[in-house]
Amino acid sequence: MKQREETPYFRDCQKLGGIQQKDIYLSPTKAATYLYLLNHCDKNVAMKFAKRRICKWDTTIEQDGPATCRILVPMQKKEKCINGWQNVGYEVFYQNKDTIADQKQLNLDYENDAIQQQLENNEKMLGNDFKQQMKNLAKFYQELNKKYRLNVQDADFKERVQKAKEQLQRQRNKPLQYFKKDGVKYVELIHELNQADRRQHTLLDRFKAFNQLKASQFRIKEKLPEKLYNKTVNEEDSTPMNRNKLLKKSCKFLGQTSRNVTDTLKMKFQLKDKSYHMSKQFDNYTPSIIKIQSQSSISFHKKNKTDNEEYLDQQLQRFANRMIQAQSTVQEINTENINKLIESKSNLKQLCLKKIRSKVESTQSEHRSKTERQESDCNRQRFHKSIYYFQKILFAYIFYKQIRLYQMIYLYLQIKQFKSKWFRNQFINKFYYYYYQLQMYNSRSQVSYPQASPSSGRIQKISEKLSTIQIGVENERFQKLEQAEQRIQQAEDAFNEFQEQIFTKLNGLRDQLGKLQKQVEEDKLAKEQANETKNREVQALEKKFENAIQNETQTRKEGETKVLRLLEDKTALLRTEVQKETAGRVDAIEGIHQGLQNDLPKIQEAIRNEANERDESDQNVMKSITDELVKLSNLINVEKRNRDESEQSIFEMLKDIVNRVKVELDQEKKTREQSEEHLLSLLEDTCNKLSIAANL
């Protein structure tokens, strides 16, 4: 028994396939069971048990494991149980509290199964979505061709097409009736409810077996199908908000405000049919574009939003008019018009995008040139101001023989502000030139005025005192200027850091926008390829349909000729048969008439005799019934008397029994009362004796 239990179950099962014992995959659950069994049994036994394969599991087994240690508690799934057997996929899951890895693996397996099923369903839906749409369109066109019998070779082909257009337009413009209940709109039930009100009331209506709706209970409203079925896009949607944020950031990078951003353009083309209750929506979303300052450059952008909508409506009307046109080559309406329409719309969109991109690039270049000019003008103004200020300092030095320190610092800051090297070099050259002139002037002044005045000593002392005072003041000013310079430097550093952060963010935005553009282009290419393949398939289907229609027309003509010949032959045969039948029927009618004239008096006499016999039999039956009823009434009276007598005797016996029971109960009460009194007297005596004994 042990060897049989350790070997894998169902070795030749078809569900497990041709997997050998060596090729069995040791899953994490099997590893967990192996580690759990190592603490309680031998290593080889645990390994053999972990490697086993099972396709079905008996749910009556509460504990599983090798023969020596049955300690594993299997998990049961009621969904997979059939007649006490649970379908297992190669392995059994156990409820082992000690092995956390097993529980985690169980949860992961459940999640993976759910995700895999969801992915498979999504793939099926995506794969069959477009095919189903094209099938529905093909059915729609086939029914149109059957309904209106459109054929280019007919003389009134254009008139039929025009009538079909008018009828479709009327159906689309015709308002639909509906009513609301609990927030749900019911459109198709109104016709049924009106018909139900007109019908006759049945038993179900009288007993009110079901909750019956009536059109008179609700307020019936009317709306156009476009307003009833089509919902407008919510402006508070998450995706447009994200797009607007990206646009604002890109506009800040280009130096433009958020007011220069246009709304997203949406082009929608809808195909509706009341019989199928389907609506196809081709939504081609154009990426958000920066509006250009010059409105006269591109005619596509208008001044107002309403103008844009009117322009798009005009284009859509043109496309819709081209949708159902008379086709000279094809005999039926097909999906080729839709593909042409999509191609024309995509071409128009690409042309508009090219124009707008070229204009945006030109505006960006103009904006950059303007900013560079402004910077150059600012640098020139600073240059002239600094030279003018330097000349002032030079004249002050000539007249007062001294330059203050903060003035030199101001010159240094002016030099530092220049961004271009040319302005810096020019300013430094001017600085050295004026400085050289100052030195020359000092040397000349020393040569030309060598003599000293008698009051020069006093003047020198006073100048020394003034210089000390001025030095203190200048030191304070210098400290303040240093503090201001430090603050300016900190502000510049913070500004540079902020500018670097902005540039990094904007670079990230550029990368994201580039990725988005690449994705859009890839999607366009994929759509174009899919459209090409579908166009080819549609063309092949059209050719097949044309060949089938030609074959059917030929077969119809041949069949019509054959049917006409057969009809002529059958009509001749039917005429001869009808003539023969009429002659036979006339003879039969004459024979029947003669027979009726002979048999009618006999039948009347037989009817009279039968009536007399029936009357006699009825009288006999009534007599027998009355006799039996009299007998039954006598028997019933006798039975009543017997019952009354028996009831009276039973009642008297019950009275006697009740009286006896009462007497016995009274005697029992008396005896019990006597016994109770006797017991009470005994208890009183004992209590008195005990009290006397206690007192002693």
TrEMBL record:
InterPro entries: Giardin_beta-like
This protein's UniProt keywords: Coiled coil
Keyword Coiled coil: yes
Domain of life: Eukaryota
Coiled-coil regions listed: 474-558, 658-685
Protein name: Uncharacterized protein
Species of provenance: Paramecium sonneborni
Taxon lineage: Eukaryota, Sar, Alveolata, Ciliophora, Intramacronucleata
